[in-house]
Amino acid sequence: MASVLRDAGLNVEIHDDHFPQNAKDPDWLTAAGKNNWIVVTRDERIRYRVAEKQAMRRAKARAFVLAAQGNLRAEMLAEIFLKALPKIRRTMKQQRPPFIAKISRDGNVTVLDF
Fold this sequence. Notes:
By secondary structure, the protein is of the alpha/beta class. The chain has helices spanning 2-7, 15-18, 25-34, 50-59, 74-94, and strands at 38-41, 62-66, 99-103, 109-112.
């Protein structure tokens, strides 16, 4: 997914380039927020976990969840993300951090309560 997004001109940081694969979510979410990185994840449950929510709120993290994507390949996930990119950019301008937004398969973006 990262290579497709980079080819589209986006700056992409990979979790495993900065953190151990088994890093605890609150740790890397805090770092992402402090580095002003935008989190892209498939973990739809992240907004329900207390420690993750607290970390995101403290670090003013911004996250986009690729929701209900099943077992799609990385290239297809990247295409969905790029299709949603205008709405992602609009959300980032309109929504103050912290926030979590859902990217649906059709490219719609919805800010979620968390």
